[in-house]
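Chain A, query sequence.
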Amino acid sequence: MNTFLFLNQRRRVQLVWLCATVVIGCIVFAKAMAQNNPAVTHDSGDFSAASTNQAPTYLRDIQPIFMGNCARCHNEQSRFVYNWLDYKTAYADRWEIRRRVWDSWKGTYYKEAMPVANSPESLTITDEERLTIRNWVDDGGLRGEPPPPGVAKSKAEKIELGRKLFTSICAACHQPTGQGRPNVFPPLAGSDFLNGDKDRAIKTVIFGRQGEVVVNEMKFNNNMPSLPLSDQDIANVLTFVYNSFGNSGLEVTSEEVKILRAQQPVPSTTPAPKNPFE
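Chain A, predicted structure.
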């Protein structure tokens, strides 16, 4: 009898150890799989994108996306659509932004996806950027803090910082090659508009421009929005443009931008001719 009890107790101990081993093995396996597969999203399993430890914030993550892919329509000069370059406005409209940028794009919302199909912005916005916007809304639409300014100490550093800004913000319209789009967006490559008047180029980036402009003997009539860029950002991106695409090699300083920002913008539209029959 004692022998039977001893063997039975021994089997129970072995069974407990076996169960504990299986549980530990499952935990280790799950951790290993999580480390090898960082593509975990908030609420849907039909899209893979690398997750981050930080929730997206407007100033650090979202505003740069809006500047590069939405600002041609959603800017402070717009009369009929909301200005998403302003945090309060974007926050108030965040759920509709999510529906248009994510749900419509996925085919689960009846309104047209944004950016508008076949537009330059729709061709450049990435899957990861769409996911970042969706996650920003789902995580509460945090404002956050802007990224630290890129302070350049040399012309070469300005060019490199400017290149990153150009790629993320300007290339959607002016193209990565600076060639623009015929009859839509003017070229920056070999641009007589840029190379002929540096102050005018700086003011265009500061204040934006509406109305007809002639560049390299070609007419363009589109909207160049005013973007919420710092003086140093504008100096960097223009220094990059002036030193790329066959342009003049000029350097723009933040001090030049600051001085011109304090001036009143000159209206860029040409007044309509007076009717001689009035």
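Residues 2-36 form the longest helix (35 residues). Confidence is low (pLDDT under 50) at residues 1-7, 28-51, 268-278.
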